[in-house]
Amino acid sequence: LPCVLRKWLQHLDNDLFVQFLPQGQGVRPLSLAGHVGFDSLPDQLVNKSICQGFCFNILCIGETGIGKSTLMDTLFNTNFENLESSHFEPQVKLHAQTYDLQESNVRLRLTVVNTVGFGDQMNKQESYQPVVDYIDRQFESYLQEELKIKRSLHNYHDSRVHACLYFISPSGHSLKSLDLVTMKKLDSKVNIIPVIAKADTISKSELHKFKIKIMSELVSNGVQIYQFPLDDETVAKVNTTMNGHLPFAVVGSTEEVSVGNKMVKARQYPWGVVQVENESHCDFVKLREMLICVNMEDLREQTHTRHYELYRRCKLEEMGFKDTDPECKPVSLQQTYEAKRQEFLVELQKREDEMRQMFVQRVKEKESELKEAERDLQGRFEQLKRLHADEKAALEEKKRLLDEDQSSFGKRRAAAQLLQAQSLTANGKKDKDRKK
Ligand SMILES: Nc1nc2c(ncn2[C@@H]2O[C@H](COP(=O)(O)OP(=O)(O)O)[C@@H](O)[C@H]2O)c(=O)[nH]1
Ligand SMILES: [Mg+2]
Fold first, then answer.
1. Which residues of the chain are under the pLDDT cut of 70?
2. N or C: which end of the chain has fewer CB within 10 A?
3. Ligand 1 binding pocket includes 275 (Cβ within 6 Å)
4. Does the beta carbon of 67 sit less than 6 angstroms from any atom of ligand 1?
5. Integer Cα distance of 220 and 79 in angstroms
6. How far is the C-alpha of 286 from the C-alpha of 278, rounded, in Å?
7. What three-state secondary structure class fits 334?
8. CA pair distance 59, 333, nearest whole angstrom
9. Beta strands of 6-137 (E only): which ranges?
10. Where is the Septin-type G domain (predicted)?
11. Are 106 and 54 in contact (CB under 8 A)?
12. CA distance linking residue 95 with residue 61, whole number of Å
């Protein structure tokens, strides 16, 4: 809030006071005796913001079991519903949970987005692409809301990711190529805050070297991580110091252990206790201070003014909108729309002509195909007709031969019967003569 107030005051200085004064004159302070009342504007802003409540969205990227859920619980001093995920997820899924939190009279709508199954795939692209797509989808829905005729941005649930905690495995060696590729893909879309997870598993001297190694690898690979801002002089000093401590080495635990005469969050080992909130044990407090107490508003602002702005610009340019024409003359939205419409109509006409030509061509092709088929059929019909006539002639010849055979057979049979009758008569005569 102090940051908001300071920015608001600067805004007042620039826009309100100066505009009332002739050029060249400075700010004209009004005397307190004659109270006008606009000095209450910051209070009005604070009251309005408190009434509206705040919203903050954190994305936790890191492999399964690296301590993401535990750190979130430790940061917000609560127990979020955490489902333990397996190492056998076929693909990375982003799981977002929204919680309404309240601290004194300030309400915060917090969304924690978890990368389930990150780093468990063989193919690196399968790990980072769902994350990139998720971030873009949140920008897209905000852009769609902005472009609506009836906008309701004041009660729109802004799901754009304000901070991305990137959990680095405490190997003590170097970043994995998946870490570098993912951070590189995301650095223009989100505020990346790298953290070394489970920092109680790495020794102090190794940790120091590891931090230097990580930072040099990020620089040499051109990965832009979020830098705590230095433009606000009240926090510039602490932010400069904290920028030098990046990446924060964190330890998470919701377990309470008694140290001295009080209970503290810690991890207990046979050889001792690692206190989460002890700055000589780890950087957890630094992270909480920087992320929540000092720079939460800047993270929200950077998301809107830098990352979302870039997304919006690219998207609108992709859609063909531009502010100036090639001669640097301003182009209004209406002009762009008209030009686009004209372009679209020309394109449509061209497509229509092409389709018509294609149709005519296809009809011609089909026609010649049909004619060819008809010719084929006619040829086959003629051939069959010829075959049929030949077969008919052959059959008729066979029939004629058969008829001839039949008549000669008839003749022969009649001759045979005559012979038989004659021989019978001759035999009868002989018998009669013998009896006599
Ligand atoms: N040594 C150590 N273990 C931790 C730390 N944070 C979490 N763990 C343990 O790591 C395991 C996985 O933690 P979890 O938060 O569920 O990991 P996630 O899968 O990334 O959400 C649990 O057994 C935690 O107790 C830590 O800072 N140091
Ligand atoms: Mg988890």
1. 1-25, 30-33, 82-90, 121, 124-125
2. C
3. no
4. yes
5. 39
6. 10
7. helix
8. 35
9. 54-61, 93-103, 106-116
10. 52-318
11. yes
12. 11
- pTM: predicted TM-score of the whole model, two decimal places: 0.74
How remote is the CA of residue 47 from the centroid of ligand 1, in Å?
Answer: 39
Q: Is the separation of the CB atoms in 291 and 75 below 8 Å?
A: yes
CA of 178 to the centre of ligand 2 (A): 19
Question: How wide is the angle at C-alpha 276 spanned by C-alphas 284 and 65, nearest 5°?
Answer: 80
Sign of CA dihedral 208, 214, 219, 223: negative
Using CA atoms, how far apart are residues 116 and 94, in angstroms rounded to an integer? 6
Residue of 251, 273, 275 whose CA lies nearest to 265: 275
What one-letter code names the amino acid at 430?
A: K
- Rounded Cα distance between 110 and 76, Å, is 10
Name the residue among 55, 47, 46 with its Cα closest to residue 100: 55
Distance 65 CA to ligand 2 centre (A): 7
Per-residue pLDDT at 28: 72
Task: Tell me the one-letter amino acid at 25.
Answer: Q
Q: Which residues of 260-277 are buried (b: 16+ CB within 10 A; e: fewer)?
A: eeeebbbbeeeeeebbbe
Query: What distance in Å separates the CA atoms of residue 375 and residue 369, rounded to the nearest whole number?
Result: 10
Closest to 63 (Cα-Cα) out of 108, 4, 115: 115
CA atoms within 13 A on the CB side of 92: 27
β-strands 248-249, 192-196 pairing: parallel
Q: Is any ligand 1 atom within 6 A of the Cβ of residue 119?
A: no
Q: How far apart are CA 152 and CA 145, in angstroms?
A: 7
Adjacent-strand bridge partners of 54: 108
Structure confidence by residue, pLDDT tens digits, 68-89: 999 999 999 888 876 666 666 6
Report the C-alpha gap between 302 and 309 in whole angstroms: 9
Residue of 30, 112, 103 lying closest to 79 (CA atoms): 112
Ligand with an atom nearest the CA of residue 86: 1
60 in Cβ contact with 114 (< 8 Å): yes
Rounded CA separation 164/225 (Å):
10
What's the confidence (pLDDT) of residue 10? 57
